[in-house]
Amino acid sequence: MMMIRKRLTEITKFDLDSLIARGAQEDRTLEFKRALSGRDGNPDPWMAGSGKIGQIAKRDLTKEIIAFANTAGGTLILGMDEDGEKRASGLVPIPACRDLADRLGASIAASIDPALTSLEAVGVELDGQNGVVVLRVPASHNAPHRDRDERECYHRIGDRSEPMSMRQVQDLCVSTSRSTDLLIETLNKQSRRFVIRQPEGLMKLDGNMHVSVILCGIRAAAYPLERIAVDEINEHRRYQMVLPTLRRLTAQNATMPVFSPSDVPQWRPMLRGLQSKEIPEEFEEVVQAVRYDGLLEITAKWKQAVREGMGIEGLALPVRKAYWVFAHTIVRTEIFRALIGRPELEFALDFEWRFPGGTKIAYPTVDGYSGLRIASALEQDNRVTDFEMPTRDKITDLWRRLCSDLAHSFGIEGVEPPELDFEAAIQEGLARAQASQP
């Protein structure tokens, strides 16, 4: 099991000392290394202050990371001594630990085939620049992985990393394929349920002016790449915090999404999950759900009036709503990871927006409507399924790529997305979840 249930960047000496106090023992997902391995029992060059990492140490650590990725994920702590029973027994600071962490992360990732993008490595300073290096990797959905140079696959057996036989490699390939098929089928099933039925006819407003009414919709979902089960999800109020309300959508500038306020929408239990259904201002219907298997989903539908001479604010509505749904999906996924104590858990992200062909869309800039671009929907349905939820420090990169895809779906380039404080929104949600504990 994971012994430190927090983000690597939040780990302190206190957490490491706690492992020693608890007598944490090496197992399937935890490995201790006192120092970098050297040739013939000699110290690694880095330990002597040369600034270079020896090949023996690189290969040793690469083997451990591959084994974790091919099994159930895990954490390796470099600079932790162990006793005869492989229990944490003391800290042994490594020189220039932060620099070493950066180099090891890049070097190990480059040595693994296929590429392992989910590896994290941080240095925890204890004495000046000296300290401990912590490496963490989740179970990989692209397994099996192998050492690029040694051409060897490894897996974890108890507290050991061992070479895999050809049969074991084949079995892992089949298991990975089945997991991928399940992921795709789950997301496709949710997409098929997202039905947009267009209203018929025209709505008459302002005397003789005829206004066409269309129904637009957005769906966003996050689903873990690893099979999980949060059995107590119906009973704990803290999980309601991943169902944010949309009632304050119009409270700020039209170009900016509004993150979850302090109140929580009305929710009800569903089979192994929670669901909320709202009809807030500007929406026809908003349904949010969180399931025991980690599926998080928001679907939002609204009616859009289309007429000649429509004002800029009306044209911009679909973009505002898309911004809100996309941003909240990112925030609530990170909150959920923290609530279940799995900060390293990977999620597939599935975004879908449906605006009927010809729908007029306005893209305002962050500081107002200067430089406004107006376009029409090129296709009725747009869906992107190749995103993965990154670590928290890379969320802004995901946000910018997602907003870019939204703009490109309307044939628009050069649109700058709103700059959002995701960290503040995540911390607010976590604080409210903590306050809701009985």
Large-scale geometry: elongated
Unreliably modeled segments: 202-207, 245-262, 309-315, 365-372
- The fraction of residues in strands falls at 25-35%
Rg to the nearest angstrom?
A: 25 Å
Structural class: alpha+beta
Order of helices and strands: HEHEEEHEEEEEEHEEEEEEHEEEEHH
Total of helices: 7
Helix content: 25-40%
Provide structural commentary.
The protein is of the alpha+beta class. It has seven helices and 20 strands.
Quick recap:
Helices cover 28% and strands 28% of the residues. The chain is α+β, with helices and mostly antiparallel strands and 438 residues long.
Task: Lay out the secondary structure.
Layout: H1 13-22, E1 30-33, H2 55-70, E2 74-78, E3 80-82, E4 88-91, H3 97-110, E5 112-113, E6 120-127, E7 130-137, E8 146-147, E9 154-157, E10 160-163, H4 166-193, E11 202-205, E12 209-224, E13 267-270, E14 273-278, E15 285-291, E16 296-306, H5 312-339, E17 347-354, E18 360-365, E19 368-376, E20 381-388, H6 395-408, H7 422-435
Parallel strand pairs: 1-2
Antiparallel strand pairs: 2-7, 3-4, 5-8, 6-7, 9-10, 11-12, 12-16, 12-17, 13-14, 14-15, 15-16, 17-20, 18-19
Helix pairs in contact: 2-3, 5-6, 5-7
Task: Record keyword descriptors for this entry.
alpha+beta, Methyltransferase, Cobalt-precorrin-4 Transmethylase, Domain 2, 7 helices
